[in-house]
Amino acid sequence: MKKLLFAGVMALGLFTATAQTKIGYINTDELIASMPEAAKAQAELQEYQTGLGQQYQDLQNELNTKDSIFVKDSTTYSPSKKEIKRKELIELYQKVQNYQQDSQEQYQAKANALITPIREKALNAIKTVAKEAGYSYIFNEDNLLVMPPSDNIIGLVKAKLGIKDAPKTAPAPVKKP
Which range is the signal sequence, renumbered to this chain (predicted)? Predict the structure, then answer.
């Protein structure tokens, strides 16, 4: 009985050892960049960044204007009024400084909110293609040093997402003098 059990375990091991493991790879950055949603998100982020920049510029202009007025008129202010105006300038200066950091955080949050669904859609398409094509593992191309071109699944995933590749133009011929 032990020999039969041992033979069964060995046979099972032999079958799993001979099973083919299909491995593929993809450049996720290239895939995401080719998605129409990415272009729309990039345009929206650019517009958002422009708005944040304009608000910063407005705050900076307000600070410069009030600082100029303070410098010009401070000799006519009473000591208490001068102290109040100085505190207002300091508070406005701190607001400008904090706005820079806050706007960077707001931009990053907006970028994450826009890009996360696009990444998820790409990942789901990759998983679907891997399952349909029988791939056991899919790696990101950035992590691989050597790979066969036949196992790049980006074409399959783009097809699954309905993305048509732009025609690649041939390089212009070099004229010899």
Answer: 1-19
For 115, what's the count of Cα atoms within 13 Å in the CB-facing half-sphere? 14
Q: What is the mean pLDDT of the chain?
A: 83
Q: Does any domain span residue 2?
A: no
Residue 143 inside a domain? The answer is: yes
Whether the pLDDT of residue 106 is over 80: the answer is yes
Instruction: Measure the CA dihedral 116/122/127/133, to 10°.
Output: 180
Considering the domain boundaries, does residue 133 fall inside one?
yes
Segments forming the whole domain that contains residue 139: 21-161
- Provide the number of structural domains found in the chain: 1
Determine contact, residues 26/126, Cβ cutoff 8 Å. yes
Q: What is the distance between the alpha carbons of residues 91 and 20, in angstroms, rounded to a whole number?
A: 68
107: left (phi over 0), alpha (psi -120 to 50) or beta: alpha
pTM: 0.68
Residue 175 belongs to some domain of the structure: no
